[in-house]
Amino acid sequence: MMKFISWNIDSLNAALTGTSPRAAMSKDVLDRIAREDADIIALQETKLPDKGMNKKQAQALAEYFPGYDYAWISSREPARKGYAGTMALYKKGMEVKAVYPAIQAPEPMDSEGRLITLEFPEFFFNLVYTPNAGDGLKRLEERQVWDKKYADYLRELDQRKPVIACGDYNVAHKEIDLAHPENNHKSPGFTDEEREGFTRLLSRGFIDSFRHLHGDIPGMYSWWAQRVKTSKINNSGWRIDYFLVSDRIKSKIKRSEMMDSGPRQDHTPLLLEMDI
Fold first, then answer.
1. Phi-psi region of 132 (alpha: psi -120 to 50; beta: other; left: phi over 0)
2. I want to staple 178 with a disulfide (CB 3.0 to 4.6 A). Which of 170, 193, 200, 238 is the partner?
3. Residue 127 pairs with which residues in a beta bridge?
4. 241 near 169, Cβ under 8 Å?
């Protein structure tokens, strides 16, 4: 049995070394993740510089996860600095090869540190931080190209060995995946184009592990707006974070759920257990 966790951390530095009330809530989430003793932990939106963590950050990370090695990639020129970025932690001693794929997405998306793939003897593990369509949907066209390129990439992996993929996909797939679909059909993350892109991704041979286990259970979300103080209290959320697996190994899924992140708004971690 293997356990996987995925979390959009919204600044690794803030979570590890920050002193604000929000940083304290992030530290509480890190504690919860550490207690799960997962085999692999996927982090999105690390916002690290292109040189990676400094000594203080690396020491703090090691205190939370002393038994792990990690692979990371950050945003680099021509992309904005301190933007996006991903990291995968995996238990020491695992036989793993890390790659940082470029999928020929519109620039500078391939330079924003959005993808890491870990190759294991029996499967691929991919983590992704999908580009947001942006305010006013200014990046929607580029996002559509990304979705196609990413689906092609996952399909190529799947032709070689089974895939477990996770991360912040920045799309609520169906109306059940957000609290107020009627008001959001023109909002980033719920446009017809983005939803169709996710449908096409699944059609390439993948399943949404949460819906596979739980069916159309309502009111289950992974993100609540930070700027709306009552969003989490009222459960006015979106499900935009996913664990996807190759259809042919769906029978191996034992758990797929959102972890409790306490009062902290924004993303909550996801947990997946598989008999693999």
1. beta
2. 238
3. 116, 166
4. yes
Burial classification of residue 215, based on how many CB atoms lie within 10 Å of its CB (0-12 exposed, 13-18 middle, 19 or more buried) = exposed
pTM for this entry: 0.97
129 belongs to the catalytic site: yes
Catalytic hit among 68, 70, 90, 129: 129
List the chain pLDDT tens, one digit each, 276 residues: 999 999 999 999 999 999 999 999 999 999 999 999 999 999 999 999 999 999 999 999 999 999 999 999 999 999 999 899 999 999 999 999 999 999 999 999 999 999 999 999 999 999 999 999 999 999 999 999 999 999 999 999 999 999 999 999 999 999 999 999 999 999 999 999 999 999 999 999 999 999 999 999 999 999 999 989 999 999 999 999 999 999 999 999 999 999 999 999 999 999 999 999
**Tokens found for residue 155:** 């399909």
Token pair in block for residue 267:
């993303």
Question: Which class is 2-274 in CATH?
Answer: alpha beta
**Catalytic residue flag (residue 221):** no
